[in-house]
Amino acid sequence: QVQLVESGGGLVQAGGSLRLSCAASGRTFSVGVMGWFRQAPGQEREFVAAVSASTIIKNYADSVKGRFTISRDNAKNTVYLQMNSLKPEDTAIYYCAAGRRGVSGYEYWGQGTQVTVSS
Length: 119
Prior knowledge:
By secondary structure, the protein is an all-beta fold. The chain is about 0% helix and about 55% strand. Strands 2, 4, 5, 6, 9, 10 and 11 form a seven-stranded mixed β-sheet that branches. The chain has a four-stranded antiparallel β-sheet with strand order 1-3-8-7, with no helix packed on it.
């Protein structure tokens, strides 16, 4: 099993920045892709960004391209999401997720961290 713990959420004004962290523990050698998802009140969970195990391949949702940056430190088993130029519509619970090497999809999920952007 792999456990994921997010941190770094909070309240920020529009235009500000936040950095989310997600630390993995347990069978971390089995972790492949890692990503971030978010869920706003009354809406479905949506993809935000993902990074491959090699850290070479990164993908972003169109809504965050140019504002958010995902990175990964495999030595620390941690993935980060740097969020700049935040907008009120970025307000959501942000979830870290991880998949197993060689297996598609995300098997492990964190508990989520709240990000609130005020206008």
